[in-house]
Specification:
By secondary structure, the protein is an alpha/beta fold. The protein folds into 2 domains: about 1-55, no CATH class; about 60-93, no CATH class. Helix content is about 45%, strand content about 15%. The strands form 2 sheets. A two-stranded parallel ribbon has the order 1-2. Strands 3-4 form a two-stranded parallel ribbon. The radius of gyration is 16 Å and the shape is globular. The termini are far apart.
Length: about 90
């Protein structure tokens, strides 16, 4: 479902990337990446410099859905298990 919605926003499937839904992604022409995949490592290597440049210029936005102290790790996991928390979750000491 989420991949189909992504294609409504970004019509060109080659502009989308996912870490899940292998069969659906392949069927829709969306690139799938994962830590153990050689193609994934090559993709990350190819975009790393651009991401670093964007971050250095203050132009890279990473939405933060929540910051949790370590003692609330279980709360953070519950939010993560909802599927789409709306951004990254951070643990703070």
């Amino acid at each position: 479902m989420a991949l189909r919605v992504s294609l409504e926003v970004v019509a060109d499937p080659s502009r989308s990337v996912t870490v899940a839904a292998t069969d659906t992604a392949e069927r829709l022409g969306i690139r799938r990446i994962a830590g153990g995949m050689r193609a994934s490592a090559a993709y990350r290597d190819s975009v790393r410099a651009e991401l670093i440049a964007l971050a250095g210029a203050g132009e890279l936005e990473v939405p933060i859905a929540g910051v949790f102290p370590l003692e609330r790790l279980h709360d953070a996991l519950r939010v993560l298990m909802t599927g789409h928390p709306g951004g990254k979750l951070a643990l703070a000491p």
